[in-house]
Amino acid sequence: MSIPLRITLTMAQRLAVMSPADNMLRDPAPLPQAVVPLASWLTDAVTPDQRWAKLLIAQPMAERVELQLGGKRTVSAAAIPGLNPAAARKLAQVIGAEWVWLQSKAGRTDACFSGSRSRFTLGRADVLAAQHGGTLEKTLRNRGFDFAIPQWTNVDRPGWHLSNLGATCHCGRNLVLVDWWHAEAPRRANSHFVACSAHGIVGAVEGAPWRNLVQLRRELDAALAVQGPAARRYSVYVVEVLGLPRSSKRPVYVGMTSKPIPVRLEEHAIEGHPLQGRVFRKAKGGRVGQLLAEETKSLPELRSQLAARTAEAWVAEVLRLRGFDVHGGH
Ligand SMILES: [Zn+2]
Question: What is the pTM of this model?
Answer without folding.
Answer: 0.68
